[in-house]
Amino acid sequence: MLNYLRKMLYLTLSLFYRIKGIAIKKNVIINLGTKLSLGFANGNKGSISVAEKCELAKGVVIKSYGGKVAIDYNTFLGEYVCIYGHGGVEIGKNTLIAMHTCIVSSNHTIQNKDTLIRSQGDILLPVRIGDDVWIGAGCRILGGVTIGDGCVVGAGTVVTKDLPPYSISVGVPSKVIKYRND
Known about the structure:
By secondary structure, this protein is mainly beta.
């Protein structure tokens, strides 16, 4: 009975999101309270795709206005993860992103003091997270960074620069402290 209810919930949610233009593959778990939204920016429509065997926990928010958010196979997004994919976000296979992490692929421009910041354009900075990455709770991933395959990012870390494959990083801003298999 429980499997039947899960299947019906999946079918209902995936149909709802497909109608909105969001691609949800088979065997994806989307928990209640998850919000996926698309919009237009700079003449482009945003897109969101979630590959097979992914799980989006309670309270996950993914917004893509003009950008592309792509979540690859068997990836887990923990409770209240927020992804603002206006500049584009790619998340690789078999990746774990823990609760309360925020990924932002755009920023505001602030050059003109005579114009409200909100009225100035955005800077679009794509984010790429590789395969087999573990991002701890409460991290902040800022635009323009690539987190290499196999990385571990400690809880509370703010990532402002690229992280090489298989590195372990912590801190504000992030600092590589060692490599896996060292």
